[in-house]
Amino acid sequence: MKVLSEVLLLSLTLFISGCNYSNGQITHPQKTSIDQPSNTNELRSKVKNTEVQPYDLRNSIGQLKTTDDAVKAGKVDIYQKDGSFWYSYKFIEDNGEKPEKNEYFKPFRYSGDGYIVFNLVGESKDFYEVVSNEETGDKKFVKKNSPLFERQKWEKYILDCYAIEFDSDSNPLHSSPKGGNVVELSSAPTLFFPVEISGDWLKVKWNDGGDKSKDENRGWVKWRGNGQMIIRLFETS
Amino acid sequence: MPLDYHINRTGTVVPSHNNDKVNNYYLQNVNMDGYFLLISLEPNQALLVKFPDRMNFFDRYSGIDTGGMNNGVLHGKGDHYLLANVAAALFGVAAVLKDTHSIHISFGDMSADNGSDPWSPGSVDHAGHGHGSRSGLDVDFRYIDNGGYSFHGKMNNKNFSKKNNEIVYQVAETFGFKKNYQGKMAKLSGIPTAGGHDDHGHLGFGS
Ligand SMILES: [Zn+2]
After folding, report:
1. Do A98 and B63 touch (CB under 8 A)?
2. What does the alpha-carbon distance between residue B30 and residue B57 come to, in Å, rounded to a whole number?
3. Chain A residue numbers touching B63 (CB-CB < 8 A)
4. Is residue A108 part of a domain?
5. Contact with chain A for residue B181, Cβ under 8 A
6. Residue B41 has pLDDT above 70, yes or no
7. Which of A130, A150, A192, A215 is 20 to 30 A away from residue A65, measured at CA?
């Protein structure tokens, strides 16, 4: 029965995860709700649902990201709580050299191609405290006087993104950052582009049906709710 | 059915059926008085071809994406897969850049082997390149410096060449890449701007 139950569990997991891949075609799964709107009578917008994994920002005081100088330096150094050296993350050289593998190093974003973005969660006189492993929540430290890192707000990172998606069931588009009316969409747009942020609200623009010849529309969606980031980021096109 | 593609340096690509298992790419020679077999590429199950990492007139940058599950999407392996006709157009772009304009271009992400957008654990997400409806159609490139080579840096780098990068977009457009973006630093004339493109340009096939 153990085998059967594992098969059932696997089937259930696949059903729940809902990702359907066949013949190179990927369809998006139905999304689990994050955070129900307070007014259940609100009309739902017709946006195609997207899967959003909420990202916990409750302990975050911003981001720590590598500067352009980090690529030139070729590596950045990470430290332990007592200030002793932990690990050097090396950027891939054009000769194809790979960073030394470290299964414990899994920050918010990182690539040997030249960037690291940490969730910044604390600071002391000499060090920034960052989440070094998003899976385990482990934290490590970066020297404050390093020219290879700079602080950045989450808001800036979001506005620098190419596009965003959100779960329209739990997080519908509104006409204003105070809430306002729920915005109805005549057809499912393909992409929402970030415009500005006011508190927990993000102003986005889109073209109906993704058609750039159509009028550009604007609306507001929550990027943060209950201390969680509740939009999905597409940093580039 | 596989095709022969005859790639003209004026920007047209002429397909014709062949009896091979592979697509044959014939590039017009520099004197434009004949063609030579550049390469043969076999379509995979997702009907994409693997664009070569490097030939003597272009190369690639960054590590090869490993794929994996992220946000409910199974990202395939690799990052250099294109529709067969888009690969033909891209060969043409790179050849004209090299032979006519002395520009050596480095390409980055295209699509993964299953048609998804390329991804590795930790990497940023693409909105195109296989996410949504655009699969095998999008190509990133590193901006060109004053010496005519792709470089690792942003549009505000002192080595960034306005002239050479405008040539890249112009040549790409003649070959059918018309959904193109530059970064919001907007150093180039006539190219739409978009977030997330300060350190690479984006060429999207189609209008
Ligand atoms: Zn791109």
Report:
1. yes
2. 13
3. 92, 96, 98, 111-113
4. yes
5. yes
6. yes
7. A192
What is the C-alpha to C-alpha distance for residues A209 and B134, in angstroms, rounded to an integer?
A: 14
Q: Does A233 touch chain B (CB under 8 A)?
A: yes
Domain count, chain B: 1
B128 touches chain A (CB under 8 A): yes
Which residues 97-116 in chain A show a CB within 8 A of chain B? 98, 106-107, 109-114
Q: Which residue, of A97, A126, A147, is where some domain finishes?
A: A147
Q: Which residue has the tokens 């934290």?
A: A139
Closest CA to B142 of B131, B153, B132, B130: B153
d(CA A102, CA A100): 6
What is the average pLDDT across A167-193?
Answer: 82
Task: Tell me the CA distances in angstroms from B146 to A53, A90, B56, B93, one per residue in order.
Answer: 42, 27, 20, 19
CATH number of residue B157's parent domain = 3.30.1380.10
Cα gap A100→A98, rounded to integer Å: 6
Count CB neighbours of A103 within 10 A: 7
Q: Which residues pair with A200 in a beta bridge?
A: none
Q: Taking the CB of residue A215, how many other CB atoms lie within 10 A of it?
A: 7
Query: Which residues, at least 6 apart from A34, have a Cβ–Cβ distance to it below 8 Å?
Result: A52, A54, A167, A170, A171, A225, A228, A230
**Is B35 a domain residue?**
no
Residue B111's DSSP bridge partners are B81
Are A107 and A89 spatial neighbours (Cβ–Cβ below 8 Å)? no
